[in-house]
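Hi R.,

As promised on Friday, here is the backbone we talked about, encoded as structure tokens. Could you run it through your design pipeline when you get a chance and send me back a sequence?
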């Protein structure tokens, strides 16, 4: 059976960037049909007349900006996934976080002052996994009423061999890994957490300005102190340390039982820096069995090998359920390896973390 074309709408007031992005997208697959619009109003007009499998939406545009356009798409065409196209400054990062919280699936960042060839390669490497996910999403939607798909979903969301729960030891640290859909998920998780008396280490796949904006946004809504981790910083309880964009973050135990943050620009892992696996390996070394790990919504499988290392040390592991994920990728990898002790819906995750850390039950 011939694969259906994948229809994309690019919305950006820059004709030059529309041309660049269209060229990169069509180089990924010949089966992608690309239409364009110079502003949000034109985009809404086009979406009203024809269906699209994805919309790439610039933030700052005349007539109707990206945030307003996203609101209209969410109201009128809520099943259409939107990927924001963000600028490179702090203002763009702040607005992008707002868009992700409002329902945008993901974002791409416009390249910074690179050669056309390098810009194109950076965009392509970022877009390939997005289109892989979008294409698989399209196929699932096309077959969601079939018996095969129903059976698959039931199998994927239920442990194949239910196992007796072995509750964790005393918890000294919580380690969280998250990616696509992360900002919105974290806004539903972290503000619900009380002070637990332990530090929380967190990796989310975002660039530098965006992790800073995310930390500020979450800190304003939470009882915990939420900040971007700094190199050689002493770890404190009731603080969430977010790995800075572009750097790996690790936890180190020094003499006297003092824990410190470490940052480095080592090689990417799973095409990521920061990478969840890098953080989790260090957490296993520093805290041993006294760890609760949490893998949340995201593309790819970053975190699965890190949890495997943590499990060998004796940690307890949670994964977000498929239905509550924006993208069931990272939790799926964990679940399929049999590394998740519990699969927890996003709405119950804060209470489950609290119960395990405080009561160990």
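Update: got your reply. Pasting your designed sequence below so it's all in one thread:
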């Amino acid at each position: 059976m011939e694969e259906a074309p994948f229809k994309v709408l690019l919305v950006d007031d820059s004709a030059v960037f529309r041309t660049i992005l269209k060229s990169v997208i069509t180089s990924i697959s010949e089966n992608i049909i690309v239409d364009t619009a110079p502003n949000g109003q034109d985009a809404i007009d086009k979406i009203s007349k024809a269906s699209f499998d994805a919309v790439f939406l610039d933030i700052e545009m005349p007539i109707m900006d990206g945030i307003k356009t996203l609101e209209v798409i969410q109201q009128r065409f809520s099943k259409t996934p939107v990927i924001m196209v963000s600028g490179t400054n702090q203002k763009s990062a702040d607005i992008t976080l707002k868009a992700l919280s409002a329902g945008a699936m993901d974002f791409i960042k416009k390249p910074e002052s690179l050669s056309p060839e390098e810009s194109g390669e950076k965009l392509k490497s970022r877009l390939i996994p997005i289109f892989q996910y979008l294409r698989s999403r399209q196929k699932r939607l096309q077959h969601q009423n079939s018996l095969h798909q129903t059976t698959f979903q039931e199998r994927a969301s239920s442990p194949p061999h239910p196992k007796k729960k072995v509750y964790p030891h005393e918890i000294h640290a919580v380690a969280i890994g998250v990616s696509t859909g992360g900002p919105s998920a974290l806004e539903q998780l972290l503000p619900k957490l009380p002070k637990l008396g332990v530090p929380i280490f967190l990796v989310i796949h975002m660039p530098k300005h965006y992790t800073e904006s995310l930390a500020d946004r979450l800190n304003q809504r939470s009882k915990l102190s939420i900040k971007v981790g700094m190199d050689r910083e002493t770890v404190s309880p009731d603080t969430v340390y977010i790995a800075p964009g572009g750097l790996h973050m690790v936890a180190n135990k020094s003499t006297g039982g003092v824990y410190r943050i470490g940052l480095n620009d080592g090689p990417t892992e799973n095409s990521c820096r920061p990478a969840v696996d890098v953080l989790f390996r260090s957490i296993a070394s520093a805290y041993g069995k006294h760890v609760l790990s949490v893998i949340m919504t995201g593309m790819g499988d970053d975190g699965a090998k890190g949890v495997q290392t943590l499990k060998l040390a004796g940690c307890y592991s949670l994964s977000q359920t498929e239905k509550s994920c924006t993208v069931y990728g990272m939790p799926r990898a964990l679940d399929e390896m049999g590394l998740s002790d519990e699969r927890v819906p996003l709405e119950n995750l804060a209470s489950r973390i609290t119960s395990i850390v405080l009561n160990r039950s």
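One thing I noticed while checking it: Confidence is low (pLDDT under 50) at residues 147-162.

Thanks again,
M.
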